[in-house]
Amino acid sequence: MSTIEFFLAGTLSAATIFLLAALGELVAEKSGVLNLGVEGMMAVSAAVGFVVTYETGNHLLGFAIAGVSGVIVSLVFAVITISFLANQVASGLAVGILGLGLSALIGNNHESLTIASTNGIAIPFFSDLPLIGPVLFQQNIVVYLTFALALCIGFTFKHTRLGLAIRSTGENPHAAQALGFPVFLIRYCCVAFGGLLAGFAGAYASTIYTPLWADGMIAGRGWIAVALVVFGTWKTGRIAFGALLFGMVSLGELIAQSMGARIPSQLLSSLPYIVTIIVLAIISTNAARMRLHAPFSLGEVFDGSESR
Amino acid sequence: MNAFRNKMLKALAAFAVSGLLINTAANAADPLKIGLLTPSPIADVGWSKALVDGVDAVKAKYGDDVEINVIENIQEGPDADRIMNKMVGDGNEFLVLGSFGFMNGGLKLAKRNAKRTFLHASGYKTAKNFSPFTAKYYEGAYLMGMAAAELTKTKKLGVVSAFAIPELISTINGFTLGARSIDPEITVDVIWINSWFDPAKAQDSAKALLAGGADILFSNAQDTPSVVTVGEEGGAYVFNLNGSMKAYAPTKYLGVVKTDWAPFFVASVDAHLAGNFEGQNQWLGMTDDVVVVEDWNSDISEDMMAKIEATQADIVSGAKHVYDGPLVNQAGETVIAAGERLEDGAILGMDWHVEGVNSPLPK
């Protein structure tokens, strides 16, 4: 595999972690719930997914149970914030930190073990094309499914009644309730869906992308996912673009070093974060556009009353 | 180690109010309490495991006369200071602080507790009851470089490395010098990931090095088998530091530059019990049986193994030193002329790469 093939193929693969988690967070935020516990949910599922896959040898089972564990952690958050009306920011941080601790406990006996990775799927003819083959047609199936899911979610928000219900819940839960939408149910489901995708992202990280478990291996990727949602101004296409950009920057740094580029590696290591800050700053200069895209009631507790 | 007990200890330590449980001098009949603080979780391999093996050797020698308390996975920073205080409060008379970042907090504690003994990994500050200890990894890396030089076909070697600190820089230079002592055409690419701990990044770096043409990998101070597994999958020989990871690369494992802290820890406990412990900079290598090379790949020819063993014997006897001149830096300037030897201080503070390392050193 040449350097350029590795770079492009690796970008897609690295972007998948960010995109999966960010899509889940997008759905939760669209319903008006800001869940900052993504990092913790990913860590728990990464540990669970790894332990299950290690013990059973079954990647699919590992993925499924990791997803379920992500849902369970997200439901803890949902109960605190949706039913008990606690502050979403503080609760999200608390659940996230709890998740990090839990993941260390769950993975304690599997520290630094490895499992066999799954191979990418090979598509006849296309896989053998130069450059395009290894980049586009030899990826893991999760990569394809994730990008397909991004399209589905985008379509759902734009063109379906379900999408409308979620969006109106996020914009104005009082009005949504007056219209007859089950606001609490919608929010619970959206947060749980966010947990499911964060769970898949964690499992992808620990069983496919880097097939090993080590405490702390999520290493801030959950936070980047949260930032990506704002970065993409709550639009799936832009979030997917952002995920690819982050994948590219994080790999480009390593490749620039291996080719002997005369740039300080510390600067390269901080590039993903510098890019985040710059883009967020640029986006935020247009306040009207931010308000237009951000769910209006994002982060506000809703007590079920009909007017504010 | 009882993992659950460790977790409980950690939880207790985190919540304890420091100074609440100060013990008075222990009775002579009580076992000597030895405390070990590690910066990462204790796995089957890696840095923290090597430290645990070291204190286990003390336990093996003294049996019930010592009691070992291990607290794992402590982040460097103020939290570590509090936990160290707690360990002292719990009556640990002999402490092993397992990471560079425990230095200042540990030193303060040592000054307040003159009768207790402290060993501190990777640091440079000393007190009369406080000894920093470091391994001369570069000695082992030099031998690995010789083996790598025989097995490489592309004449490109790749290193995935944590932070650009003298300890790791001198190890990469040792590796490079060893390889080029066999084949001067060999070059070395280095990727600094600027993290002690990011398995995904380490793995991507290793893949990037392979994509760039390297066919030997060196996992420099990475505690997880991330780089080693990439070597096995990618068909590149690979070696690492501290503990053997042969299980992760059964066919492509080049060997290990192991650290065996047992002789040093046992000797220090002996000295502590005899009351004649003296804090000093402990910089330990092959001569001290602390740096050990083993698990050599069977693909290395007998001729080369003989050469490696001869070089090893020369290093142990002092006839050869890895940093014997002539040494040339990346810019092509002679640092040390033939017949001279680089001073210890210059190795301990190394901030330059030898000729043959392609990658620039981050400043």
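qc> Residues 43 and 218 of chain A are 6 Å apart (CA to CA).
qc> done
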